[in-house]
């Protein structure tokens, strides 16, 4: 008998190996030669949480020998097996809002959003760019890395599309834009004309807002009629209401 035939017929031995390990193998799913002297036996795995997986027991022999030995036992996924999601590096899993007190998050050395501090990123007023960069470089006060053009573009797009951008529900319902509001503090640098910070504690206080964002707390919003009264309704005059007692109402008296 050929060695592979002997190994293929050793199904019970492969099953006994799993049982001896405390497993409860299901039906035999077949055997496959793994070379001239090894055969892999597959069994359905009845393991909680491993739907579609199967046990693989590799039996091996030697030329001219009738003995069968166990080479390997492993749990493998079959077709349609329940698998864990693909692994994602931690720096790709984090998102806005994940950083908490005491957490450290370092930007990678090759972060495209940042460039070395000595590179001119065009993020300073052209009048002051040469003087500021030269002086800072001489006395060592410059930042090690600055926002690159790509970094500014990503931030601008994120702010434009976010909660305080011109397409937000609040902005769509506003009569005026932030660019004309007294509470609007424009950013410095290349984003000066497009974004600023809101200084109105009753609006988007402390948030970066697009120049064409807007809300109902604009500095030029007119005071509603009535001074300190409700801006939506006229004062309620209870003197014009006829008071009817409950007893009179029950007897039909007027």
Automatic annotation (TrEMBL):
This is DUF3027 domain-containing protein. It comes from the Bacteria.
